[in-house]
Amino acid sequence: MLVLFTDFGLSGPYTGQITAVLKQLAPEVPIISLFADAPSSQPKPAAYLLAAYGAWFPDGTVLLCVVDPGVGSARRAVIVEAGGRIYVGPDNGLFDIIMRRDPDAQLWEIGWRPQPLSASFHGRDLFAPVAARLAAGEPIANVARRTVDESATRGWPDDLAQIVYIDHYGNAMTGMRGALLSPEARLIARGHELTSAATFSAVPQGQAFWYVNSNGLAEIAVNGARADTALGLAIGSPVSVED
Amino acid sequence: MLVLFTDFGLSGPYTGQITAVLKQLAPEVPIISLFADAPSSQPKPAAYLLAAYGAWFPDGTVLLCVVDPGVGSARRAVIVEAGGRIYVGPDNGLFDIIMRRDPDAQLWEIGWRPQPLSASFHGRDLFAPVAARLAAGEPIANVARRTVDESATRGWPDDLAQIVYIDHYGNAMTGMRGALLSPEARLIARGHELTSAATFSAVPQGQAFWYVNSNGLAEIAVNGARADTALGLAIGSPVSVED
Amino acid sequence: MLVLFTDFGLSGPYTGQITAVLKQLAPEVPIISLFADAPSSQPKPAAYLLAAYGAWFPDGTVLLCVVDPGVGSARRAVIVEAGGRIYVGPDNGLFDIIMRRDPDAQLWEIGWRPQPLSASFHGRDLFAPVAARLAAGEPIANVARRTVDESATRGWPDDLAQIVYIDHYGNAMTGMRGALLSPEARLIARGHELTSAATFSAVPQGQAFWYVNSNGLAEIAVNGARADTALGLAIGSPVSVED
Question: What is the least distance, in Å, from the CA of C135 to any CA of chain B?
Answer without folding.
Answer: 17
